[in-house]
Fold this sequence. Notes:
Layout: H1 21-31, E1 34-38, H2 45-53, E2 58-62, H3 66-71, H4 75-80, E3 86-90, H5 98-111, E4 119-123, H6 126-137, E5 141-145, H7 151-154, H8 159-165, H9 169-172, H10 177-199, H11 205-217, E6 221-222, H12 225-232, H13 236-248, E7 252-255, E8 271-274, H14 277-283, H15 289-293, H16 298-313, E9 319-324, E10 330-338, E11 341-347, H17 357-366, E12 370-375, E13 381-384, E14 387-391, H18 392-400
Parallel strand pairs: 1-4, 1-5, 2-3, 3-4, 11-12, 12-14
Antiparallel strand pairs: 6-8, 7-8, 9-10, 10-11, 13-14
Helix pairs in contact: 5-6, 8-14, 10-14, 11-14, 12-13, 16-18
Amino acid sequence: MADLQGQAPWQGQADWIPRLQGQVLSHRLEQFPAVALLGPRQVGKTTLALQLAASTPSLYLDLEASADLARLSEPSLFLQRHADKLVILDEVQRLPGLFAELRGLIDAGRRQGKANGRFLLLGSASIELIRQSSESLAGRIAFLKLGGLHPLELGAGAQDSLWIRGGFPGSVLAATDHASCEWRRQFIRTYLERDIPQLGPRVPAETLRRFWTMLAHGQGSLLNAAELGRALGVDGKTVGRYLDLLVDLLLVRRLPPLHANVGKRLVRSPKVLVRDSGLVHVLLGLADADAVLGHPVAGASWEGFVIESLLAVAPSDCVGWFYRTAAGAEIDLVLEWSPQRRWAIEIKRSLSPRLSKGVHQARADLQPERMVVVTPSPTGYPLADGVEVVGLAELAGQLMQAG
């Protein structure tokens, strides 16, 4: 892929790019005293929070900064002085004892008529933050996840750049392919050598890098913990612990199988996907579009990119699955609002897609409301009776309106 220098109007302007979750975040703050915005590091959580803060009285505290931590040595006393502001607490999982204090402040505020929009909590470890906050803030907090940039935010013309470089702003907005690749290498190194050890797990950085790379090689394949364990020289439980860690950090997705009542033997193992396609490519040493397109991972990488792009904009009541039977009937992604309302989505890199017998069988099993094939083409057309080809950006837009 050609460098982006001078070609993309959004290049280098992460603060300018409107995030679709921004409006959702504002609505959640109107509805709840506290909102937790979750996402991996460098995905844009702080930028989005500060954009919101610019339009309302607010206080920003970074809990990785010693000066801000010192302010919270007596959190109730300090935060009471700022009860009239939106308090933004970045990397809040670093101070788990704070959640009980927030509960008292929220309840006191409710009695004084200050009900909602009190605290915005930013975190990069989803499971741990959800556990900590749910125990203390049940009924007082809403959760919202922020992923990387996607075609609806940068435009359909940025689709190839987003696929090759991934959705992290620092990567996709870099001036050159080389700079983008180096950003991703340093991102991985920082996670392995600094961030993960700070969270407590004692996992050798090189072992976790090997595991992460193995997941990239098997992008979108079914989880086989025993096989991964043999390659790493560890048992299946240890593989599960490594996987849980990367899932918790929102770097890897476990896509569950759909257990529909169709009278067939169904696959029960989840699919495992490295969530950012740019990280898939740099873990495999693929520096640009030519390298990606010449590698066997290209199809699986594109599939993962489409899945993440669609799940990022799916309505909150929509759940994503994949469908596969032991006999080989399969659908790459099933979006389900209810058993009576499903979209079946097949993902192809080809501009002239053909559906296999297994896809047709899966469609007959599931009887979806809609059957769609996503290709790199921006234009759609009917493919067969009841089957349509739709571009990714167009389908994402339709999905946002489908709630």
